From TrEMBL, chain A:
It comes from Mucilaginibacter rubeus. Belongs to the adrenodoxin/putidaredoxin family. This is 2Fe-2S iron-sulfur cluster binding domain-containing protein. GO terms for molecular function: 2 iron, 2 sulfur cluster binding; electron transfer activity; metal ion binding. Keywords: 2Fe-2S, Iron, Iron-sulfur, Metal-binding.
Automatic annotation (TrEMBL), chain B:
It comes from Mucilaginibacter rubeus. Residues 7-290 form the FAD/NAD(P)-binding domain. This is Ferredoxin--NADP reductase. Belongs to the ferredoxin--NADP reductase type 2 family. Keywords: FAD, Flavoprotein, NADP, Oxidoreductase.
Length: 105, 336
């Protein structure tokens, strides 16, 4: 199992358990776990409504890819370690990571 | 204040609202469309104009914008009318069963039938956290450029780093007295072309480019006069401005439609799949905005819903006439 901690917009946190080997993005997992996450564009890195911030985890997760930066750069504010949840594939090395929801409800 | 009289008022000019004009037109019903966006096309034009779509029957491959352009050609014979850049706010029911639809600009559309084709909801601008931003809305602050002439010989500040901020900075540099573009980063990731143009214009002194900074506060009296900026080193500066246009993209919100007494299930309007009518007589909901058992949010499904809606709406527009179903190929598309 991969355990993630998700801090909601109101500051409350909840953990999410994900079976290993599933081929999903973090956005899809958050949606399936009934988090309020719009994901208007369905994961095509176009809408930024799946915006999250990495709080804890391996170093490489703190940097957004170019595709993500294209979209994040259009937002009024993007905190450091901003990512698009739809562009993060769930893998085993994510066990124990902490994310915060930033995108609008 | 504009007064419009029509048979069907369609809220939302996305692909489904547009195709509803065709289906209504075949039955001789006139349509007026309202959309909060300055252009037609809904999600297709706003979010993914250049992406190909593969599941429109008869088109192995068509870009989203091409599909919208073709829909506009297809409905042209029925002369639909439009109020673009206006948000539908209110609904009033008249004694004879007809409705008045009222927009935020005060436009009133009198109609026999209301069709909500509002998709994911009203595309609303993302508003940055700027002190007194909303105080100056309509008094210098605008979130879209409806008519560039409005900015002629004015001091305009644009905020944002995406394609629309870049494109409008280039365009308005020929119209406004002074254009300032404020961006929180130091690179632009919009189309490389536009970014280059902006840097060139800045070098030529035709645009003021202020990077690594955010607009944080606005001041003025009866209208906007000055903008306060904060840069990454926490230095504060001020610039004179007649207009601020924050361009940070749009996000859909269900908006005022949620308060009309319609049955709403998770931000979507529950409908009867016989004709896509809602719980309120003469109000229909088609496309992404509706929900029913088995609903698929696809353009194709919205088109089908438009056809059934039009057959059902006919009885309210022409109560004296009986509708008998005929293939369009029998008569062709007879315009009015
Ligand atoms: C990235 C992406 C790719 C997609 N690819 C496909 C695909 O390949 N095939 C497919 O079938 N579907 C696809 N879709 C889904 C498709 O875009 C939608 O099903 C379709 O746009 C729904 O059309 P619509 O007319 O119901 O709503 P929309 O396109 O959402 O249009 C609704 C319009 O109503 C307006 N509106 C809402 N409320 C108000 C109000 N109160 N006042 C004024 N205006 C209002 C909005 O501003 C908007 O312009 C895709 C969607 C996305 C985001
Ligand atoms: S779902 Fe739209 S950017 Fe991630």
């Amino acid at each position: 199992m991969i355990n993630l901690t998700i801090i909601d917009r109101d500051g409350g946190s909840r953990s999410v358990e994900i079976p290993e080997g599933i081929n999903l993005s973090l956005m899809e997992v958050l949606k399936a776990s009934e988090y309020d996450i719009l994901a208007t564009c369905g994961g095509m890195a176009l809408c930024a409504t799946c915006h999250v911030q990495v709080i804890e985890g391996p170093e490489e997760y703190f940097t957004a890819t170019d595709t993500e930066l294209d979209v994040l750069d259009t937002l009024p504010y993007a905190p450091p370690a901003s990512r698009l949840a739809c562009q993060i594939r769930i893998t085993e090395d994510m066990d124990g990571m902490v994310f915060k929801l930033v995108g609008e409800e | 204040m504009e007064h419009i009289t029509t048979d069907i008022c369609i809220i939302g000019a996305g692909p489904v609202g547009l195709f509803a004009v065709f289906e209504a037109g075949l039955l001789k019903m006139r349509c007026h469309l309202i959309d909060v966006l300055p252009q037609v096309g809904g999600q297709l034009s706003e979010i993914y104009p250049h992406k190909p779509i593969y599941d429109i029957p008869g088109y192995p491959d068509v870009t989203a914008q091409q599909l919208v352009d073709n829909l506009m050609l297809q409905i042209a014979p029925f002369h639909p009318t439009f109020s673009l850049g206006e948000r539908v706010e209110n609904l009033q029911r008249n004694e004879d069963g007809s409705y008045n639809i009222i927009t935020n600009d005060g436009t009133v559309v009198h109609c026999q039938v209301v069709v909500i084709a509002g998709g994911l909801g009203c595309f609303e601008p993302r508003k940055p956290e700027i002190d007194r931003l909303t105080d100056f809305e309509g008094k210098g602050v605008a979130y879209m450029v409806k008519n560039p002439e409005h900015f002629r010989d004015k001091k305009v500040v644009l905020a944002g780093g995406g394609d629309s901020a870049l494109d409008w900075a280039v365009f308005l540099s020929n119209v406004a007295e002074r254009v300032t573009l404020v961006h929180r980063g130091d690179t632009f990731r919009g189309a490389p072309d536009s970014a280059e143009k902006v840097f060139d214009l800045a070098r030529e002194g035709k645009i003021d480019l202020i990077l690594k900074s955010n607009v944080v506060a606005l001041t003025g009296d009866d209208r906007l006069r000055e903008i306060t900026l904060l840069d990454r080193d926490q230095q504060v500066s001020h610039i004179e401005a007649d207009h601020l246009i924050p361009l940070f993209g749009l996000s859909p919100k269900l908006g005022p439609i949620a308060d009309w007494g319609l049955n709403i299930d998770r931000s979507a309007i529950a409908v009867n799949t016989v004709d896509y009518s809602t719980n309120i007589e003469r109000i229909y909901a088609i496309g992404d905005i509706n929900t029913y058992l088995g609903k698929l949010k696809l353009i194709l499904c919205g088109f089908h819903e438009s056809a059934l809606m039009a057959q059902s709406a006919f009885k309210y527009v022409f109560p004296e006439q009986k509708l008998s179903f005929k293939y369009t190929t029998v008569y062709g598309v007879s315009a009015f």
